[in-house]
Design a protein that fits this description.
The structure holds two protein chains of two kinds. Chain A is mainly alpha-helical. Chain A has eight helices and no strands. Chain A has one domain (about 1-240). In chain A, helix 1 (about 1-25) runs antiparallel to helix 7 (about 185-215), helix 2 runs antiparallel to helix 3 and helix 2 crosses helix 5 (about 135-150). The two termini of chain A are about 35 Å apart. Chain B is mainly α. Chain B is rod-shaped, with a radius of gyration of 14 Å. Classes of the chains: A mainly alpha, B mainly alpha.
Chain lengths: ~240, ~30
């Protein structure tokens, strides 16, 4: 059942991804000011938003671990952070590709970019501290505290364009009053389908990753009723 | 490509590669 639902999720992500590419590259109108490079927003913004989502997942799974002391929650937190780190790095690189033709620079030290790099560094550090101990619960406890504290960076990144004077544009969609008068409808549709594709893909990757982490944990019993190879060996010796 | 399509193509190809990498990485060692 897990395999079927995961396959359906992966298929859905692929279909949504193809639709997002078609809309973003061919259907959405060309931006009157930025020209074709604006189409990078249909991958840059979903990468950033879904990274936020994964870090919210780290927050919730970390709280759940500290409450329940169940390593399953720790595996969810670890996998979510691994995906979030990659998507944050992708968002930075895609933003840089957009910045070169539109801003005229690959990089500039302004609040949104700086806070995003800090966000990336904090979650890279979060993944780094997970290997400090041989006790999985000690690692999970330490990581959970950091995973909860680190989330404060997400609203700082999001509101950095509101709180400080920035070169980066203010929110277009996630803003008071909504996106109705700030973005052309087909542009908004292209963006939202891409967000859907990124979300489905992230959940699909996450479920597979969590399954692998569980498989590699010697404390976790197998999903089915079949004895593990070690148990088979012991049973055979006992029966002789 | 002077109209900016080059940047767009590079960005979309990079995005596909990142997701392909995650698909490969998340499936390593997965029991099927």
């Amino acid at each position: 059942m897990r395999s079927l639902s995961t396959s359906l999720l992966g298929g859905g992500a692929a279909v949504a991804g193809a639709a997002a590419a078609w809309l973003g590259l061919l259907v959405a109108p060309t931006d009157a000011v930025q020209g074709q490079p604006q189409r990078l927003m249909y991958v840059h913004v979903p990468a950033a938003w879904v990274a936020y989502l994964t870090f919210a997942g780290v927050l919730l799974a970390s709280i759940a671990y500290l409450v329940r002391r169940d390593l399953r929650w720790d595996r969810h937190a670890r996998s979510a952070a691994e995906i979030g780190v990659g998507l944050t790095a992708l968002a930075i690189v895609l933003g840089s590709l957009w910045g070169r033709p539109v801003w005229g620079v690959w990089w500039t030290w302004e609040p949104r970019l700086i806070t995003t790099v800090v966000l990336l560094a904090v979650y890279v550090g979060y993944l780094g501290v997970r290997g400090l101990s041989t006790d999985p619960h000690a690692n999970a406890r330490r990581a959970s505290v950091i995973g909860i504290a680190a989330f404060v960076n997400v609203p700082i990144v999001h509101y950095s364009v509101v709180w400080w004077r920035t070169l980066h544009q203010p929110p277009t969609v996630l803003r008071p009053g909504g996106p109705a008068d700030s973005i052309e409808p087909m542009m908004l549709a292209s963006l939202l389908i891409a967000v859907l594709a990124f979300t489905l893909a992230a959940v699909w990757v996450h479920l597979r990753r969590v399954a692998v982490l569980a498989q590699n944990d010697p404390a976790v019993p197998a999903d089915d009723d079949m004895p593990r190879p070690l148990e088979l060996t012991v049973t055979a010796r006992t029966s002789r | 490509m002077s109209d900016g399509w080059g940047w767009v193509v590079v960005g979309y190809v990079l995005t596909v590669l990142v997701w392909a990498g995650y698909a490969w990485w998340s499936g390593r060692g997965l029991d099927r």
